[in-house]
Amino acid sequence: MAMTDFEANSFHWLVDMLESVEVGLVVLDLDFRVQAWNGFMENHSGITASKIRDQVLFDVFPDIPKAWLARKVDAVALLNTRAFTSWEQRPYLFRFRNTRPITGTEEYMFQNLTISPLSGVTGEVEKVCLMVYDVTDIASSKRALERANEQLATLSMTDRLTGLLNRGTWENLVDAEFERYRRYGHTTSLVMLDIDHFKPVNDSHGHLAGDEVIKHTASITRNAIRQSDSAGRYGGEEFGIILPETDAEGARIICERIRESIELSVVETSVAPIRYTISIGIAQLTDEPENYMQWMQLADEALYAAKEAGRNRVVVR
């Protein structure tokens, strides 16, 4: 039956709309051969509709996850219902470069995907339509917000001057390590260290020079401990270290390394080169402390003993 002029015009308008719409439209048969490929897809892939027609999608785009898409399409065809997937589940189906200057921070286009069944005259699903939505703006904004929130979370846990854990965060970890010992009995040691004669450094050279000394202590400490260890700035010129799976002798070896590195180094400040030392106290956890605060008190007592014995030394309680 021939088309009427009205039907022909309507079809032309429909085709024109599908070509110009800012959504990717791809029609596939159930063998994944491309039956339709609109202007959006041409523009972003660089492949014309005439060139890709009747080709198997996976042959042209081998990086598309074949098993994943096949499962989706099979479910759509079997159930005769739409399927959706967002960029948060899979960033993109087609690896198109991001062409939006406003979201130039993202290398690739983020995409939402809708897969719709297309039925023939018998009512059986013969084809599927992939609708590809460019959601790069939305994804970029959300990712930027998540990064900002992560940075805020990190800032709230760390000491601004040294980058080590702040007192509250570090004390929480001491509490958690104490409870871990109570439950599993794993060997663990706590360290408290303090910069010797820090007040004269501040009085003689000023607070900026004092800050450089504090940052230097933090840097030496961070470089001397393992990834599983946790160092924090406890306050002023005092620092703490949690050493899991470490007995008192193992802790002493680590602390001697820190003490010696600091004794042999010179902090070059804008005012003057500064040499300084630290005192360190160690307490291996036993069944004696009733809570983490008592464990910290034992490490503090060892630190006090190091100060009383002449400073620049490590004392194990």
What's a quick, concise take on this entry?
With 317 residues, the chain is α+β, with helices and mostly antiparallel strands. The protein has eleven helices and twelve strands. It is elongated and about 95 Å long.
Describe it for me?
Its EC number is 2.7.7.65. It is an enzyme of class 2 (transferase). It catalyses: 2 GTP = 3',3'-c-di-GMP + 2 diphosphate. It comes from Marinobacter subterrani. 46% of the residues lie in helices and 21% in strands. With 317 residues, it is of the alpha+beta class. Strands 2-1-5-4-3 form a 5-stranded antiparallel β-sheet. Strands 7-8-6-11-12 form a 5-stranded mixed β-sheet, with helices on both faces. β1 and β2 form a beta hairpin. α7 packs across α11, α8 crosses α9 and α9 crosses α10. The radius of gyration is 33 Å and the shape is elongated. The N and C termini lie far apart (99 Å).
List the SSEs and their pairings.
Layout: H1 5-20, E1 24-29, E2 34-37, H2 39-45, H3 49-52, H4 57-60, H5 66-79, E3 83-85, E4 111-119, E5 125-134, H6 136-157, H7 167-184, E6 188-195, H8 198-205, H9 207-224, E7 230-235, E8 238-244, H10 248-264, E9 267-268, E10 273-274, E11 278-284, H11 292-308, E12 314-316
Parallel strand pairs: 11-12
Antiparallel strand pairs: 1-2, 1-5, 3-4, 4-5, 6-8, 6-11, 7-8, 9-10
Helix pairs in contact: 7-11, 8-9, 9-10
Instruction: Summarize model confidence as the mean pLDDT.
Output: 90
The N- and C-terminal alpha carbons lie at a distance of 99 Å
User: Which strands sit side by side, in order, in the main sheet?
Assistant: 2-1-5-4-3
Class based on secondary structure composition and strand pairing: alpha+beta
What is the helix content?
A: 40-55%
What are the segments in which pLDDT stays under 50 over at least 5 consecutive residues? none
State the CATH class of the largest domain.
Alpha Beta
Tell me the overall shape.
elongated
Total count of strands: 12
Which sequence of SSEs, written as H and E, runs from N to C?
HEEHHHHEEEHHEHHEEHEEEHE
CATH structural fold name of the largest domain: Alpha-Beta Plaits
CATH superfamily of the largest domain: Reverse transcriptase/Diguanylate cyclase domain
Radius of gyration: 33 Å
GO molecular function: diguanylate cyclase activity; kinase activity
Cofactor: Mg(2+)
EC number: 2.7.7.65
Catalytic activity: 2 GTP = 3',3'-c-di-GMP + 2 diphosphate
